[in-house]
Specification:
mainly alpha, 2 domains
Amino acid sequence: MNKKENKIYQRNKRQEKLISSGKPLIQCLICKEWFRQVGSHIVQRHNMTAREYRKKYGFNIKKGQLPPDYKEKKAKQAIECQGYKNLIKGKKYWFKKNQKGIGTYKRSKETLENLKNTSGKKVKKRKKCLNCNKILKNRQRIYCKIECRQEHYKIKYNKHKTKLFTNN
């Protein structure tokens, strides 16, 4: 058996072992083989970046392709080895708002749809008055006016009484 035949044999053996393991796999759309992590395969075998592959086949450019159980495993590993701290260290390289050079590459349809659906900012849930449901201002905690507070307490604490705060 020569080198090339041995490589093919080893690859086929790995494929059979992966498929028989019962773990979820992802299929490479170029060569139709199955992998746990298709991105590294594409870079090594097909001489294209994972981003180019996702763009060519219509996947979301910014999201990697991993089975759900493998994603969880990688997330746990990142927490255990504290790899997330590298993101904090690299903060000086993050893009800033209105910075030149952002958005110069072509975005996929999926990315454009995601950008339309989300404004990019996290939407804060605004607090509402417990009595009248008006949106509260920053400093107001539970009620918008003193009258709302008094009215709410009348309802809350005098449920079973027949007369509510009468002057008699």
